[in-house]
Design brief:
The chain is 55% helix and 14% strand. It is of the alpha/beta class. Helix 10 links the parallel strand 6 and strand 7. It is elongated.
């Protein structure tokens, strides 16, 4: 049985290709069952995110081309045109690849934690679709344990490496408890949405979203239990804000020194943390000169992000060592499977021999032979039958000069020297 990981990601394929190969929740189960119809495919899991589509399989005979052809066929694409974007990992490389993916080492943002949940969801979907059995179940469970260890034993996910996350982290350093605070978000783009998500996860007390288009502000605020205002209402609500994060496309500053001074007076000079992520700036630089204002720009945060990225890269080196160790561990377990059928067959053969000799012994007992004679017969016959084939094969190996086989037999049977040997 071979393990294979085949797919594409943000490193190998542009967005327009990745978009055409996604598996939404409505089709992934049908896709899994379709894949298992291909000859040689015994088990399968499909991982599909915005940055990657990957197929993990246990195969008996199918080759890589069979999986890539299925992937293209399922999406109505030409297999040859898709081929340059695909990568394939087999056995040990596949094991290592899945561990790296689940640990965030193969992500666009190094160490990002969301991918582990996505891998777990993909595995659970395959489980429910009955497309996993012993091999992939053991592989993925091993993967989850290793990813958890990496999160615990390294700092791979401790340092924020997005501007939005860095802004929220700084806010938490200044205000240890966000639950009683009001946050004013200016803008409604991707960065503001990420900031809102992080703030909501950390239990911020009150969220206000200001945007030129109130409908867009309302749409964003509603996802995080906040409320929306128009930009024209900004100065009215500014005194309420303990934290202000701004990221708009305005060519001119939205908040000036005078408006912030006025807000501070109404706040009785309670401190305000401000983050200006916009380029050009949304908040006049002079605001940073005011007492009770902590103003950070995108450049300030970028320094934090770069420093944290270096920290994650150091942690990633430690994670790679852990992955190397656990890849070898899982590979050893895979190798042990090759002996399972051999051991099972050997035991079944011994049990058949035992049953045959036992039946003959019982017949002798029923015919009146003494129990002592029957026990002697049972022990002698069973020993001879169990040892006949190995003994004959060892004699033949000796005659053929197969010294390695003889040494292997000695190790296998743990033979001790007889009393006459020195």
């Amino acid at each position: 049985m071979a393990l294979i990981a085949l797919g594409l990601n943000h490193k190998t394929a542009p967005l327009e290709i990745r978009e055409r190969l996604t598996f939404g929740p409505d089709i992934v189960v049908a896709a899994l069952r379709s894949l298992l119809q291909r000859p040689g495919v015994e088990e399968a899991v499909i991982l599909s995110t915005c940055n990657r589509t990957e197929v993990y399989c246990a195969l008996t005979s199918a080759e890589r081309s069979a999986i890539s052809t299925w992937l293209a066929d399922f999406h109505g694409l030409d297999a040859q045109s898709l081929d340059p974007y695909l990568y394939t990992h087999i056995d040990e490389e596949a094991i290592s690849h899945l561990l790296r993916v689940a640990s965030g080492l193969d992500s666009m943002v190094l160490g990002e934690p969301q991918i582990l949940g996505q891998v777990k969801a993909a595995f659970e979907t395959a489980n429910q679709a009955a497309t996993t059995r012993k091999l992939l179940r053991r592989w993925f469970q091993h993967c989850f344990a290793v990813a958890k260890q990496i999160r615990t034993d390294t700092s791979i996910g401790n340092s924020p490496v997005s501007v939005a996350f860095a802004a929220v982290t700084l806010a938490r350093q200044i205000f240890s408890d966000l639950s009683e605070l009001t946050v004013l978000l200016i803008g409604a783009g991707e960065t503001i949405e990420l900031a809102a998500r992080h703030l909501h996860q950390h239990g911020v007390g009150r969220l206000v979203v200001a945007n030129r288009t109130v409908e867009r502000a309302h749409s964003l605020a509603s996802h995080f239990d906040g409320y929306a205002i128009a930009l024209t209402e900004l100065t009215t609500h500014l005194p309420e804000a303990d934290i202000v994060i701004s990221s708009t496309a305005s060519p001119l500053p939205i908040l000036g020194k005078g408006a912030v001074e006025s807000a501070l007076r109404k706040r009785k000079h309670r401190p305000v943390f401000m983050v200006d992520i916009a380029v050009p700036r949304d908040i006049e630089a002079e605001v940073g000169e005011l007492n009770d204002v902590y103003l950070y720009t995108v450049d300030d945060l970028q320094e934090v992000v770069e420093e944290n990225m270096r920290s994650r890269e150091e942690a990633a080196e430690q994670a790679e060592e852990i992955i190397e160790l656990h890849t070898a561990e899982f590979k050893a377990w895979l190798r042990s499977l090759s002996a399972v059928e051999l051991i099972q067959g050997y035991r079944e053969q011994g049990e058949r021999t035992r049953d045959q000799v036992l039946e003959r012994a019982l017949r002798q007992l029923r015919s009146g032979k003494s129990p002592e004679d029957v026990v002697q017969f049972l022990a002698h016959t069973l020993t001879n039958k169990l040892l006949h084939t190995p003994s004959a094969q060892l004699r033949q190996a000796s005659m053929n000069g197969q010294q390695e086989l003889l040494e292997a037999a000695n190790a296998l049977f743990q033979l001790q020297p007889t009393s006459g040997e020195k």
